[in-house]
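Blackboard transcription, Thursday session:
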Amino acid sequence: MTTRTGEWHADPALLSRYLAGDLDAVTGASVEQHVSRCETCRATVGRLLEPQLLERTWAGIRDGVERPTPPYPMRVARRLGLPEPTAVLLASAASLRGAWLVGAFLSLSFATLAAYASGGTALAPFLLAAPLAPVLGVAAAYGPRQDSLEALIVTAPYGRTRLILLRTLAVLVSVLPVTALLGLAVPGPAWLAAAWLGPALALVPVLLALAGFVGPRFAATVVSLVWSGVVLGATWAPLAPTWPVEAAQQGVYVGLAVAACAVIALRAGTDRQPGVAL
Amino acid sequence: MSVPTSTVELAGVGKRYGRTRALVDVDLAFDRGVTGLLGPNGAGKTTLLRIVATSIAADSGEVRLLGRDPHRSHADVTTVRRELGYLPQELGYPSDMTAFGFVEYVAVLKEWNDRERRSQEVRRVLEAVGLADQAPVRIRRLSGGQRRRVGLAQALLGDPKLVVLDEPTAGLDPAQRADLRRTLSALGHRSTVLLSIHQTEDVAALCERVVVLAGGTVRFDGAVTDLVATAVGRVWLADEPGDDALVSWRTGTGRHHVVGGRPPAGADPAEPTLEDAYLLMLGPDAQRVHTPS
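(Written on the board underneath:)
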């Protein structure tokens, strides 16, 4: 094979094999040397390179530069099977950022520690924090400025109600397991470890129903104050430390949750503008 | 009997906020092309656009978008929203999002679920508004005009059939306005584009049709040239301001531009502008909020 440029050009079949890496080392090296000096063959190589492959590679590079890196909890959730579009939606929710998670974890830990150190008599901090952590998380999930994207979210086919429920679910999934684990460390009867779930799961729909009328901030304030009143009132009365989560009271929470869900459903059904119930 | 329906049909549409009547018995229909809404503040432009964008419901009257009643069912309104691009008047941007991140977020809300296709579409619309280079930049680092264009970009996602833009030219410089004009005229060939604008010169440049709203009612609906034509013979250049002119001001040449009223002595008829026609159309209503410099 002569490699004098200007007289000889590598045929496309040879170049294809070169591009695919099918040539032996010596032939490959000599083709490479020829191509580096021969403009005609370089042009042929350019034509042979699959344009789509180039485009895809380029798109991948641009993605790496332009696409924002999702926050750490989102990357973990993605690995656990969370669909990619859902991750994009959740990444923007303020409450899923680290600061809120750390805050919730710390306050719950201190509350648990207080209950543990007091041998179960100072239960109020834990009963206060456990149901309020998801409530505040859900309220924060509306974003720092609750109206910032409102008009777009309302008019998007995805649906505002669906988005709020998705965020609520994400908050519950991220905070409930931690609370459940800490609950195990609280001294007292075995049922206590799960008893806080009643108010926690009741207060979230109450918050959502209220937020539909007065906005998430005000709703969260009202719910927090009322729950604090219940827990502190029971401590001050004085009732048993476990009073706020005993069976009779749990019935009230179930009733509240049902009522709140009914309000949401009613608004969703009667509002002339579909999709604004929450 | 089947009547061919327009993309947007409003019949007897009314909306009130408390005791304020924002829209009163509005009948309008829109089809392919660019229509500009003109009117003083509080004329009902934003209310009208929000109704067409399915953001709020009308209190009374019939609204049909793409042949459907958006109030009838969730399925109907969702079908309409899939074909809708909307730039609200006030759009808060989460400032820690990048331009790309923000448009991508809206793309997911618009059900662009395939990651690769979504990326391509996000890049396409950012390119269309001239922000391809700013894609990885955080929104808080962008200028006001650039932010407005990020908002515009999301409204173009998926080439919607119905595009509603509330003051798209706010904060744009003349070069950016020219770009917007190009984008909109291309869009107007395929889609029904409805926009509200404050500057009359933008309407003349961007729109084929103009609707003048005042006090929640339609005062004019027709071609831009037809609106200008209503002012022919009612605008003069004179050496002194007109006594009973609707409005008059001293121009750079030292003569007075006189709109309405009787022609002052020695006045020469002047070519009316869209602004003159607009001012004459609204009469004293317009002057309160719209004083020419």
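Lecturer's comment: Residues 228-287 of chain B form one domain.
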